[in-house]
UniProtKB/TrEMBL annotation:
Region span, Disordered: 185-210
This protein's GO CC annotations: mitochondrial intermembrane space
Origin superkingdom: Eukaryota
Domain PRELI/MSF1: 2-174
PROSITE patterns referenced in this protein's UniProt entry, alphabetically: PRELI_MSF1
Natural source organism: Sparus aurata
Protein name (Swiss-Prot/TrEMBL): PRELI domain containing 1a
Feature: compositional bias, Basic and acidic residues: 185-199
InterPro entries the record matches: PRELI/MSF1_dom, Slowmo/Ups
Gene behind the chain: PRELID1
Amino acid sequence: MVKYFCCAGLLKSSWDQVCIAFWQRYPNPYSNHVLTEDIIFREVTPTNCLMSRRLLTKTSRGPRWMERYLPKQMASSAYIIEDSIVDPQKRTMTTLTWNISHARLMSVEERCEYQINPENSSWTEIKREAWISSNVYGLTRAVQEFGLARFKTSVTKTMKGFEYVLARMQGETPSRTLAETATERARETALAAKEKAKDLASQAQKKQYV
């Protein structure tokens, strides 16, 4: 069974600016998890559409209970394929991304469509869809719920990263404050502590039955 998620976003910048920012997203303060990006191929079609495929390497730290199912060298990183097509005539950009690492454990496929906002031609709207699946017997639902929660967090960071890059492109001061940075790090620390506590509790429970 596949878990489906859909949401919409709005960037208060023109479609042209957003397309340029898309290729300049990394690095930004919200994308520390993106380690590398490599273009596999790129071509212009007879209809003047730009087609690209990129390989991204990202950190992919899962909860401790999930790490036991992964080889040690695979538990901290993941490879992502990103296909994109930019249609300058229709003024749309469509992207499709999916993970090629840990796909049997959890597969996340995302489709985004960037187009001009119908109510304001100076803005860009984003329709985002995601399909999350898992083949781990007995843990499918737990893995999918974890994947969905992480995906929603990723969407928030992606939008903030876009806004940061767009502000930098337009000569504005990006609005990432020290307070925001501290809050984010505190949240990450709290989540890590929570996962550690769960792991310790699980180990303690196992000892009771030994």
